From TrEMBL:
Keyword Disulfide bond appears in the UniProt entry: no
Transmembrane regions: 18-39, 51-67, 87-107, 119-136, 156-176, 196-218, 303-324, 336-353, 359-380
The species this protein was found in: Erysipelothrix inopinata
Protein name per Swiss-Prot or TrEMBL: Uncharacterized protein
Keywords attached to this entry: Membrane, Transmembrane, Transmembrane helix
Length: 403
């Protein structure tokens, strides 16, 4: 005869099984999407090419078929030399961190189930899951520009599974609490908060300082390269006796383009251009320089200047949090104001800034946010006026005045 299992333990077991099932679904969906991207990268490449030419108003499709028929661009070489490696980086950036942290989450869940009062593990579990939800939207950058449906598929399925898993984590901790195996009240102390703030802020400041230094060097290097890329080249469109314009394109232009399968024709029919449009020359150097200057500015702004500004802002906020942490020990009469300022600053870093730098940095900044949150909770637990106000609200809610 089977021994009856208490209802709370049954609920705990069911929650644990649902958690594990969600983890399996996340891994399967991520693996399936990764496999699909690997085996359909050629289709996605030509989809990208069509989208790029399609953005050219009126003559986009005509330009695409002309370039293709004249073999100006060797799409096979462009695919092998440029697109395929970028696609592989995109896929690995999506799949490997997701798989790694999901395995960590599974291990943490098992540890919490086997060990009572695993406070730190439980909090880290919540922080990791929250960080993944904040940062998973930054993955599959290249695919996002090729096919929005794939990007939405990844967002809908993976994010939905992580939301469910995060909810199950809270339910799991609630079930453990009902069995007296988990109680966070012991952790809500200013000492624990201070430890988390110190460890998290010091590590993140070091990482952001190194990152900011690298971005400054990269920004200066890009400016130097941009200056050296200036081209002085004018195409004379006056045809020779055979009616053709012979192009002598500088090696400075042709050499880097040949590496990715782009080649210029050596001659074109110039009579059509001079007769119908009255064009006798084209300042190709000016066109190339303007194009390069615009694109370089856009790329440096997005990938260098914005991250540098965010990293600098994070360093400033974290140093300020660290200073306020020391001040609260000496000015305890105004500690409540300082705790709230710390919490707001750490929330800005965690929810708005650090999520743009990947899951690892977001998790580390999450430790600071966790520490400032514990400061507030510990203060609320010891503040008699606040506790009295909460009790008054509860009494009025339970025993409303008779009309």
């Amino acid at each position: 005869m089977k021994k009856d299992i208490p209802l709370n333990e049954k609920h705990l077991k069911i929650t644990s099984q649902l958690f594990s099932l969600t983890s399996v679904i996340i891994i399967i969906v991520s693996s399936a999407l990764t496999g699909f991207l690997l085996f359909s990268n050629s289709t996605l490449f030509y989809r990208l090419i069509e989208l790029l030419f399609g953005r050219i108003p009126y003559v986009g499709n005509m330009a695409y078929y002309y370039v293709k028929s004249m073999n100006i661009v060797n799409f096979n070489v462009l695919f092998e030399q440029a697109f395929k490696p970028l696609m592989m980086v995109d896929i690995l950036y999506f799949f490997i961190p997701l798989l790694f942290f999901e395995i960590i989450i599974i291990i943490m869940k098992r540890y919490i189930m086997k060990h009572d009062h695993a406070f730190l593990t439980a909090l880290l579990l919540i922080i990791i899951q929250g960080s993944i939800l904040l940062t998973v939207n930054n993955n599959l950058i290249l695919t996002h520009h090729i096919d929005s449906s794939l990007f939405e598929l990844k967002n809908t399925l993976v994010r939905c599974m992580f939301v469910i898993q995060l909810i199950l984590s809270f339910v799991l901790l609630y079930r453990l609490r009902n069995l007296n195996r988990f109680n966070l009240s012991q952790l809500f102390s200013h000492k624990a908060a201070k430890r988390l703030i110190h460890s998290g802020s010091i590590v993140v400041v070091i990482i952001f300082s190194l990152l900011a230094t690298s971005l400054i060097f990269a920004n200066n290097y890009v400016k130097t390269v941009e200056q050296n890329l200036k081209v002085d080249y004018v195409i004379n469109l006056k045809p020779t006796a055979d009616g053709l314009v012979h192009l002598n394109v500088p090696e400075k232009i042709t050499k880097p383009l040949n590496m990715i399968g782009v080649s210029f024709p050596k001659e074109i029919n110039g009579s059509m251009l001079t007769d119908q449009f009255g064009i006798t020359e084209i300042d190709a150097g000016s066109m190339i320089n303007n194009f390069v200057h615009t694109k370089v500015n856009l790329l440096t702004y997005r990938f260098l200047q914005v991250p540098l500004a965010n990293a600098s802002l994070s360093i400033f906020f974290l140093v300020l949090i660290f200073i306020l942490e020391a001040v609260t020990q000496k000015v305890k009469d105004h500690a409540t104001i300082l705790y709230h300022i710390q919490w707001v600053l750490s929330a800005i870093i965690y929810f708005s800034v650090s999520k743009n730098f990947g899951t690892v940095i977001n998790i580390l900044s999450g430790l600071v946010f966790l520490g400032t949150s514990i400061h507030l909770i510990a203060y609320w637990k010891t503040n008699k006026k606040l506790l009295g106000f909460i009790q008054t609200v509860k009494d009025k809610w339970k025993h409303p005045k008779q009309a």
